[in-house]
Specification:
This protein is an alpha/beta fold. The chain has 26 helices and 31 strands. A 10-stranded mixed sheet has the order 13-14-15-12-11-16-17-31-25-24, sandwiched between helices. The structure holds nicotinamide-adenine-dinucleotide and manganese (II) ion (MN). Nicotinamide-adenine-dinucleotide (NAD) binds next to helix 8 and helix 9.
């Protein structure tokens, strides 16, 4: 038994101390003289440039790790790149066997892995042993299966290349599993960087890769700090970044890699709500709170850190909760009866203290049970902050510690409003014995995961990830695999430096001999003049004036976003009714086929009939999908189900290309409409006329006001306004390379999801199959609703 255990003082607890043995873990550390290099190209490098990793329960040094230089990162990426050539081409069966071997080895070494994790991170052994390591194992098993069969589910899709993976310190091995298993299963290679305070289990895993005979270079692990992480993310040969960590760093990664065409998924912070309704089974709900905010010391991205209790039961519930808090065991994480272990680092401890102090200063009333605190190490007691209100910093900022705030609510409607009053949107937990109520509330919460009468349940088959500033992309499930595969919409021609040219009107245009109609903007179901009062003249290829469109500005975009935000009808309509309205629009367009063909011909000088025919077919295509892009039910390993729902993203901005101006507009707008989004669309700057003519079609097709809004004007400036707007949840951009980069850069304001063409032109007439499918995925995000049942 090692020295760590002597520091525990469990005398005041009913249980006697029952510490887990650390002997094997310390023997393993000693084998490397407690000094570690990186794992690159299948071998460990010599330790260099080292820094310490501590046991946060004692403050003592466990080992020294190497801080990777840019050279180390380059070597790791190079080795990943050369391994990719063979790894992507081995058979699915062979790859499945490798991943299966990793699963077996993690399972075989689960005890030592659990101890190492607890030593390095500070989490209770009960959790590392019963939750972290089994879930990591399950993730590898599940993905060994996917390695064998994913090609059946994703025909034609290819692995991406070398994936850069950066993970946090709260679930070190589990986050590694979430990253590495799907990447390898789909034929990618990886360079992974664990967090600087918790790299040991990743290094142990590297040894398991050797034991499993994973080909050299398929898995590379470099240790180091944020700088190392940024070298990985910025490396030109990294095809995708998979990041889990703070929203702040997630933003930075998005910004720094804008315009590079890298895929990126971000699993970020949270401030999740735990809703207790008055008909809830209160004793179960109390245990739920314990598992929600005191699991892993509250250092959980999806921790239920905001308790919302219905007014009538608040007093009773809180007094029960306080009694329960008195019985929590805080102390030596290695002790099997410990509930709350050590905070991961002194910095994190200081951050928690500071945030709680600021909450008290703002007027919150603090409750902490009188637990005996260990003399050394980084510990913080379970904490309840009462008399808080939504505007307090403590109710909005992620604390990432064992601290719970309480806010009462009166009605379900108010509960939803409070729960959604957050920049984040990771998860929520709903407690009620009324399944009607639970299932009614779940879709209203703007979060990626909902647990009904349960909390913090995870499984490899069910995707995990957030809405809003909790990031985008999913880990686990099919949606997680999709993130590691190509999105091949073949461009019509290769990316050229010179992108879509801007039309320069001549100085003295020749007036055409007919009455020109000045079109209007379309906002909130009404035709509107632009706020500026100015119009833009539109010329044909012979430089004849053929019409005028409003010159939209910031105010027009604001009004359009506001209208789209308020328009709730479309999303809540049945899918059948949405389909009917889309079909109806096709009917109405068909009646005016000639006119639209003429306008296209007038604008572009090309025959418009074929484009209008294709447009009608495209509307039929997405009307057909409207009631068929369904979710699935996951077979999770508990008694219960997890419903994976495809939900619309919300307010979606769409900037349309010049090419086939009617068809491309309709393709993008109708695909986003069919999945239930509300739209602010900016038609082609050069050929905007027929997009605006569509408002008559929308008006006569029973499209609810605000569902689709159309703003014409200068695309660059309108795009910039949309991309920075906090009320826009996603932005699709089909313009030039510079615009694509700008969109990705500005999207960090509220971490909007982006889909850009990187300046490539697509074939809209008889398009590739991918282009008919991809918008459905781009327009939705998966929400997983967990519903356990029975006893
Ligand atoms: P962090 O963002 O500081 O660090 C995460 C990782 O990023 C670490 O490996 C770190 O070294 C690295 N990093 C730091 N700066 C970097 C940079 N400039 N470029 C590249 N990499 C950089 O976060 P943390 O404090 O370690 O972890 C806590 C945060 O992680 C919390 O906000 C939590 O909510 C979040 N988290 C989210 C999930 C999820 O799945 N959504 C899971 C766990 C943790
Ligand atoms: Mn550590």
């Amino acid at each position: 038994m090692n020295q760590d255990n002597k520091t525990t003082d469990n005398e005041n607890f009913a249980y006697g101390p029952s510490p887990e043995s650390t002997e094997k873990a310390f023997t393993w550390l000693a084998k490397s003289k407690n000094n570690f290099g990186h794992f690159i190209g299948g071998k460990f490098t010599n330790p260099k440039n080292t820094f310490k990793t501590l046991n946060p329960a004692t403050g003592k040094v466990l080992a020294r790790l190497s801080n990777a230089t840019e050279e180390d990162v380059k070597k790791a990426v190079k080795s990943g790149k050369s391994a990719f050539k063979t790894w992507k081409n081995i058979s699915s069966f062979q790859r499945a066997k490798y991943i299966y071997a990793l699963a077996r080895l993690i399972q075989k070494n689960s005890r030592i892995l659990a101890v190492l994790e607890t030593l390095d991170n500070g989490k209770p052994i009960r959790e590392s042993r019963d939750i972290d390591i089994p879930l990591a194992t399950r993730h590898f098993y599940h993905h060994a299966g996917w390695a064998k069969i994913y090609k059946h589910k994703f025909p034609g899709k290819e692995p991406l290349g070398v994936i850069g993976q950066i993970i946090p310190w709260n679930f070190p091995l589990l986050m590694l599993a979430w990253k590495i298993a799907p990447a390898l299963a789909t034929g990618n290679t990886v360079v992974l960087k664990p967090a600087e305070t918790t790299s040991l289990t990743a290094l142990f895993f590297a040894e398991l890769c050797i034991e499993a005979k994973i080909p050299a270079g398929v898995v590379n692990i470099v240790t180091g700090d944020g700088k190392t992480g940024s070298w990985i993310a910025n490396h030109k040969d990294i095809s995708k970044i998979a990041f889990t960590g703070s929203t702040e760093v997630g933003r930075l990664l998005r910004k720094n890699t804008a315009g590079e065409g890298k895929k990126i998924t971000l699993e970020l912070g949270g401030k999740s709500a735990f809703l207790v309704f008055e008909d809830a089974d209160l004793d179960s709900a109390i245990e739920g709170v314990v598992d929600s905010i005191w699991f892993n010391q509250g250092e959980v991205c999806c921790a239920g850190s905001r308790l919302l209790v219905q007014e009538g039961i608040q007093k009773n519930f809180l007094s029960k909760l306080k009694r329960r808090m008195e019985r929590l065991h805080l102390g030596n994480p290695l002790d099997k009866s410990t509930d709350i272990g050590a905070i991961n680092s002194s910095q994190q401890l200081a951050k928690i203290k500071k945030l709680v102090a600021s909450g008290e200063k703002e007027g919150a009333k603090i409750y902490q049970p009188k637990l005996k605190m260990p003399a050394e190490g980084f510990f913080y007691p379970p904490t309840l902050l009462e008399e808080t209100h939504q505007s307090m910093d403590i109710c909005q900022t992620e604390i990432f510690g064992p601290v719970l705030t309480v806010i009462p609510f009166r009605t379900p409607k108010e509960a939803v409003a409070i729960a959604n009053n957050s920049r984040y949107g990771l998860s929520a937990s709903i407690w009620t014995e009324n399944i009607n109520l639970g299932l009614d509330i779940a879709p209203r919460l703007k979060v990626g995961v909902v647990w009904i009468n349960s909390t913090n349940l995870f499984d490899a088959s069910a995707g995990f990830g957030g809405y809003r500033e909790s990031g985008y992309g999913r880990e686990g499930g099919m949606e997680g695999l999709r993130e590691y595969l190509t999105e091949p919409i073949a461009p019509e021609k290769n990316k050229s430096k010179k992108t879509i040219s801007k039309h320069v009107p001549p100085a003295l245009p020749k007036q055409r001999n007919r009455i020109d109609r000045t079109r209007k903007l379309f906002i909130d179901g009404k035709q509107k003049r632009s706020d500026s009062g100015y119009d833009r003249k539109i010329f044909n290829s012979k430089n004849e004036l053929i019409g005028q469109v409003p010159d939209g500005n910031r105010k027009d975009i604001r009004d359009a976003v506001e209208a789209a935000t308020q328009a709730g009808k479309w999303k809540n309509m049945t899918a059948h009714n949405r389909a009917q309205i889309l079909y109806y629009a096709a009917e109405n367009l068909e009646l005016r086929k000639e006119e639209f063909s003429n306008t296209i011909q007038n604008m572009t000088g090309k025959d418009g009939r074929h484009e209008v025919e294709s447009t009608l077919e495209t509307i039929f295509h997405y009307a057909a999908w409207a009631d068929k892009f369904e979710g699935i039910i996951h077979d999770i390993p508990i008694r219960g189900v997890s419903l994976a729902l495809n939900e619309p993203i919300g307010v979606l901005g769409i900037v349309c290309p010049d090419k086939n101006p009617l068809l491309s507009f309709v393709h993008l707008v109708f695909s986003a409409l069919c999945t239930g989004n509300n739209i602010v669309a900016i038609p082609s700057e050069r050929f905007p006329l027929c997009a605006l003519d569509l408002y008559q079609i929308f008006e006569s097709s029973d499209m609810p006001a605000g569902t689709i809004n159309i703003i014409t004007g200068e695309q660059d400036s309108l795009t910039q306004i949309l991309a920075s707007h906090m009320g826009v949840d996603a932005l699709w951009y089909f313009g030039d390379g510079g615009g694509s980069k700008m969109v990705e850069k500005l999207s960090i304001s509220n971490l909007k999801q982006t889909w850009v063409n990187d300046g490539q032109e697509y074939k809209w007439i008889e398009p590739f199959k991918e282009l008919m499918e991809l918008p459905l995925y781009k327009g939705t995000q998966v929400k997983n609703v967990w519903i356990p049942y029975g006893e």
